[in-house]
Amino acid sequence: MSPQQARMSVQWFVPRGEMGAINSALHVLMVATRAEPGCLSCLLSTQLGDRAAFTYVEEWKTEEDLVMQLRSTRFAKLAQLLESATERPRIEFSLPAGIRGIDYAEEVRGRQGEAS
Fold this sequence. Notes:
The protein is built from four helices and five strands, in the order E-H-E-E-H-H-E-E-H. It is α+β, with helices and mostly antiparallel strands.
């Protein structure tokens, strides 16, 4: 990852019975993400055990590219999928200034209406 690039990584668990529907929804989001300007990659991995584990990663050319996505309807759809987690999702943002958690997304989305 270059110094100006940004990455969002999400890991969460869902009941096995919900895996298929969530996997399908994530694939639709991935196709949309890969078409967005500034997207370097979008990856999904799954592990199946007593529960299904998903790891979803987006990489962006710049932090500003990531910020635009955090403010998008597409990100709101991802957030809805995270609500199906059986425990609190682990969300990490790797940014030029360091590592942040979900507070970063909340901060960015909170500033959404402040642009003049």
